[in-house]
Amino acid sequence: MTTPAIRFDSVIFATDFSWASQNAGLYAAAFSTHFASKLVVAHGFILTQAALEVEVEKPLSSQLRIDLFHELSRAAQALPAGRGATETLLLDGNPREAVPLLAHHRSPALVVIGTHGGGSIDRFILGSTAEGILGKSSEPALTVGPKVNTLVAGPLQLRRILYASDSTAEAAHGAAIAVALAESFSAELDVLNVIRPSEIGDPEDICRIREHFYKAVEAIMPQNAHLVCEPHTFVSLGQPHTEILKHIDDRKIDLLILGLRRNKHFGLESRTSGVFPIIVKARCPVLTVTSGTLSETF
Question: 160-291 architecture in CATH?
Answer without folding.
Answer: 3-Layer(aba) Sandwich (3.40)
